Amino acid sequence: MTFVDDLCAQLRARGRRVTPQRRAIIQVLQEDHSHPTAEQVFARARRVMPDMSRATVYNALHELVEIGMVREVDLGLRERHYDITTGEHAHLICLECGHIEDVPYDPDALALPRERVPGFEVVDCSVVFRGYCPACASRVENQDRASE
Ligand SMILES: [Zn+2]
Ligand SMILES: [Zn+2]
Fold first, then answer.
1. Which one-letter DSSP state was computed for residue 37?
2. Which phi-psi region, left, alpha or beta, contains residue 24 (left: φ > 0; alpha: ψ -120 to 50)?
3. If we measure between CA atoms, which residue out of 88, 98, 97 comes closest to residue 127?
4. What is the C-alpha separation between 8 and 16, in angstroms, rounded?
5. Global confidence as pTM
6. What is the mean pLDDT of each run of 10 residues along the chain (148 residues)?
7. Do 104 and 121 meet the contact criterion of CB atoms below 8 Å apart?
8. How far is the CA of 16 from the centre of ligand 2 (A)?
9. Considering only CA atoms, which of 140, 35, 127 is closest in space to residue 96?
């Protein structure tokens, strides 16, 4: 069973519809680990299925997020991003080129100081490192040197 088959089976098991359009959307997400926005998913899905509508993409993303198969990540950028990797991980964001990368982290290293916030129930925690990817960092450095 492929990853896409598996996700489709999970959708079906939870009483959701699996249409050829949804299959194409899942395929797009599976092939794209760049954390695309809904518009980017729409553009890519339309390349595979030209009659794909924007509403179909938005509804499918919404349902996939609802059942926990896709994570909606708010990275503090203008739009929300969709992530097929749902396990614990942190994100690196390049402030120059906008590249978003997954990076593993140890959730225990980030334990909430329980005694400070008694009774608070955590449902989500996001860790984002902002900075410059190696390519951008070296370009920025070269520009600095050139302007000296
Ligand atoms: Zn960069
Ligand atoms: Zn991610």
1. B
2. alpha
3. 88
4. 9
5. 0.80
6. 87 91 94 93 96 95 91 84 88 92 84 87 85 91 75
7. no
8. 24
9. 140
Q: What residues have a C-beta under 5 A from ligand 1, the ion?
A: 94, 96-97, 99, 133, 136
Q: Residue type at 37?
A: T
Looking up tokens 């097929």, which residue turns up? Answer: 84
CA–CA distances in Å: residue 47 to residues 20, 43, 114, 117, 137 = 14, 7, 49, 48, 34
Confidence (pLDDT) at 57: 96
Q: Helix (H, G, I), strand (E, B), or coil: what is residue 27?
A: helix
The bound ligand whose nearest atom lies closest to the alpha carbon of 133 is: 1
* Residue whose token pair is 């939870």: 14
Ligand number, closest to the Cα atom of 132: 1
What are the backbone angles phi and psi of residue 130, rounded to the nearest 5°? -105, 140
Length of the chain: 148
